[in-house]
Predict the structure.
Amino acid sequence: MTFNDNADVSRNRARRRGRTTAIAGGGTVGVLGLGFLLLNLLTGGDFSALLGGLGQQQAAQGGGGGETAIADCETGRDANENDDCRLAAGSLALDEFWGETVEGYQQPDLIIVDGETSTSCGTASNATGPFYCPPDRTVYIDPTFFSLLRERYDAEAGDLAQLYVLAHEYGHHVQGLTGTLAAHQGGGTGADSDSVRTELQADCYAGVWIGHMAEQEDDNGVAYLKAPTAAQMRDAVDAAAAVGDDHIQRQSGGAVDPDSWSHGSSEQRTRWFETGYEGGVNACDTFAVGGSDL
């Protein structure tokens, strides 16, 4: 139970879009997030150059299906019982937090993907996983991705872990607003590359919000979320570790190759998540530390 049952989450702006049949892949241009990691490692492709694209190349649109509101998503109780509503409700708290933290904050869109949908960064589906598309200023998540984490990557992917994933993608949006993405377009791969630093900072930002997640309130003064329990924190940390480059390389049957990393090791991801949780936004400058301290 992550949300307060009587919290009003009806103001969420999340939309559902897509078709009913997911595909096994799809082009991705300028995407940032967990989906990029899985696509890169599971297919064996090198998509690192795309991290700096920021929409300079755009996939053709069309065929994405119409958008609808998230059904039965009015209260915290609904969010506790339904993955789609949990993500939609979480976006309210994230927007409120970052609106108070980042001057000139602009809310991103959140699309809950039903099967697959077209984006300016290619096709979003459970095969590509969650990602932030900079030219759309939109986070795309197919909730069935959490089943993939459970089945293949030894993660429980419970309530708080799902919100960690959402908060990570919102972290990329914050990076776009603050100029971090534009300043580090080179991307590249490797244990201390700009790609890894970008992703670790998004993990850190996710930790920052989770450290404050019980502070955002609805119009009636009811907190959206409860403070995380120790068990929920372990689950969120496990989710961060599950999507470490080294862990996924092992799970995929390959050798651990730090030169190919684009998101960071399990140890790095959990450490920067915890750094944000304990130290706040000012502790999240992953670009200011040397490679040995990353």
